[in-house]
Amino acid sequence: MRPILKSNKLDDVCYEIRGPANEKARQMEEEGQKIIKLNIGNLAVFGFDPPDEIVHDMILNMHGAAGYTDSKGMFAPRKAVMHYTQSKNISGVTIEDIYLGNGASELIVMAMNGLLNNGDEVLVPAPDYPLWTAAVSLSGGNPVHYICDEQAGWFPDIDDMRRKITSNTKAIVVINPNNPTGALYPREILIEIIELARQHQLIILADEIYDKVLYDGHQHESIASLADDVLFITLNGLSKNYRSCGYRAGWMVVSGEKRHAKDYIEGLNMLASMRLCANAPGQFAIQTALGGYQSINDLVGPGGRLLRQRDMAHKLLTDIPGVTCVKPKAALYMFPKLDPAMYPIADDQQFAVELLTEEKVLVVQGTGFNWNKPDHFRLVFLPNSDDLLDACSRIARFLDGYRRRHGKG
After folding, report:
1. Rounded distance, CA 254 to CA 297, Å?
2. Quick check: pTM over 0.90?
3. For a tag site, which of 114, 206, 312, 359 has the least CB within 10 Å?
């Protein structure tokens, strides 16, 4: 029979966080092996529960969640998001500028689907959260990766960004706080990005899903709060700040200079209508989450579990010979570097599979985040301290053996 092939639109689309190593881990689990999964920021499986009041309100409102809602979302949660944008000093946002989605992920794809024609270019950070690159490609666009400089704390290289802008460039993606590096961008970097967008009439798409997962007293500043003459699309949600990944409750805010974007906004409205609405139970969680006690502060503040585990993971990893890591200021991840002189890795996907096979620890290789060298990997520091110590000890043992096998011990 004639083979049924996937669409060629998927040729340049990948999502290595759930790639071959993850599939290998699934097979090993089916054989009865226990895997320590450090590949996904899925908080619930590590004992990080959503706030009780969110769960309670969703249960109370479940009887009203069976019907379609407004295609952009219910009024009350959108109003709560509007108030949240005001608290972040983003001006000029109305209810109509807010779209609720099945997590920020759906809205990322929607924003790209509505914007891009074949051949349009979007500047995306390297390393990046790979959904951004995939969404650009799936929408017919070309992702162009600008470098974030590890030596400068993983901040965007503005000169590299400037060099890569062409007549086909439509937008700049900014992931702040950053996944996978944990970087938090200062105001001066954000202002330079805005100036590039201003000069070249580009849209700024800001992924701010970790804007409350901040360590050491650091504060997050929304890039959309720093100008009103550039079009901003800001994305956020409950998944990380409120440990509610499975509720799929996210939002997208259009702000800044909207007058010249009426046609694009009409396209967003059309796409929102086509999916009918975001899931209603998740929408019921938003108002309670944003208006309630911000328990994330207890987790990231002095003595908090996330802070302790970040510090522990960073020390355990950087104590391994040939491993360095910029200490994250935000988010849930480490993105350590393996010294190529000590770890001559040619294929980091195979490296991740070997680590999984030998030590039953699952991480994601750095090239899975569109980093251009096989010398990094990402891990989450969500397991409790005992499991985290065990996982990092296994990684250290594997790397020791790797050095010896390659004559670097």
Report:
1. 27
2. yes
3. 312
